[in-house]
Each structure stands twice: as C-alpha cells, then as structure tokens.
Amino acid sequence: MKHIQIAPSILSADFSHLADEISALKSADTIHLDIMDGHYVPNLSFGYPIVRCIRKLTDKPLDAHLMVTNPETYIEPLAKIGIQWISFHQDTVFHSHRLVHQIKSFGIKAGVALNPGTPVNTLGAILPDLDFVLVMSVNPGYSAQKFIPNAIDKVHELNAARDRDALNFLIEVDGGVTGETAEFLRAGGADILVSASYIFSSDDYSKTIEILRGN
Ligand code: DX5
Ligand code: ZN
Known about the structure:
Blueprint: E1 5-8, H1 18-23, E2 31-36, H2 48-57, E3 62-67, H3 75-81, E4 85-89, H4 96-104, E5 109-114, E6 132-136, H5 150-164, E7 170-174, H6 179-188, E8 192-195, H7 197-200, H8 205-213
Parallel strand pairs: 1-8, 2-3, 3-4, 4-5, 5-6, 6-7, 7-8
Helix pairs in contact: 6-8
The structure holds D-xylitol-5-phosphate (DX5) and zinc ion (ZN).
C-alpha cells in the first residue's frame, strides 16, 4: 500500500509554543505553511521571520502554500530560507509555466493550487511540468472550515489523468481534512493530506496523523 503523506498546517498551532508544537509533529512527512497576504485572501498569517524560525525548529521538508497576489516575488526569499515545496494559486499569475520553472530552478518542488470553483481542466497544458497539484477543499483563507465535496471528484479526475498520460505529479488536498473525509480522498488517489484544525485540536498529534493515513 502506498504511503500517504501528512502535512500538518501550523495555521492552527499555538504560536506561543511553536517549538513544542513543531516537535509534537514527529510523525508528519512535511510541514505545511499557509502564507497569506490579506489581499488574495481576507486573512493575514505570517511571513519570512516566522518561516525562518520554523526552518530552525525542524529538519522536515517545508511546504509553502502561497495565498498571495504576487507569488513570483516570494520564490527567491523562500528558497534562501530553505523551503522544499511551493504552491501558488493559478489565478494569481499570468505566466504559470514561467513561475513553475522559476520555482524548479531552485530545486524546489512546484505545485499549482486549485480553488473549489476552479475546474481541473484549467491545468491541462501545465500538468506535465508540475510536481504536485494542490486541490483546495475549502475556500482559502481560514482553517476549520467545512469540507467542500467537489474536491473528491477533482482528485478522481486528476488521478485518472495521471494514469492516462503516465504523469508523475502528486495530488495534495487541503481544507476540512478529517478522519472521515481522508478516507474518501485516499480512496480517490490523493497522496498528501494537509490538516490544521483536526490535528491541532486533538490530544495526540501522532495518533491523529496515523488516523489520517488510514492506519
Ligand atoms: C486554508 C489553508 C489550509 C488550512 C487548513 O486557507 O490553506 O491549509 O490551514 O485548515 P483545516 O485543516 O482546519 O481545514
Ligand atoms: Zn494550505
């Protein structure tokens, strides 16, 4: 059986005890960083100073999810900090192909995020260049929102396109992921599950991560 990667989003972590929170995520595969600019989404989260601190707190790969209107200006600073994965929202750029290759030029995995209202077929020509697709199962901006089920259909559609065209991108799903929704996402072919509130509201993060993996 394939290993389902779990990427806890620290958006729901207790930032006054960030070191403890991060060290409690030992069984996570990557750490998901929700970077919001208060413009593309109606919320602000954190920027480079916090990302730099997180980089010092863990050796795990860091996965930056850019919810910003000008993602191209974030790539080099994040590369310098030592990020391993970056996704940007498809509707924030004119030249997605250029940005994907800019990200890859730093040796960083490149992904495009799809909002709940954006269909999979808008990715067509860029799919072969992507390391991953980030399927949003909530509208970006906040944690602890309700899962929007059309994400499951998108996961199926992406999985079918990947098989049909022998592509290698991974499918990451973000928003409202719980023990219940994770089951459908795993069955549909998702590879990486992001979760904030479900993990951080639990008593035992490792146990919750195993539930999300289906173990
Ligand atoms: C939403 C963020 C998500 C969010 C997930 O804009 O991209 O990563 O933190 O939170 P939960 O898992 O609570 O839905
Ligand atoms: Zn996210």
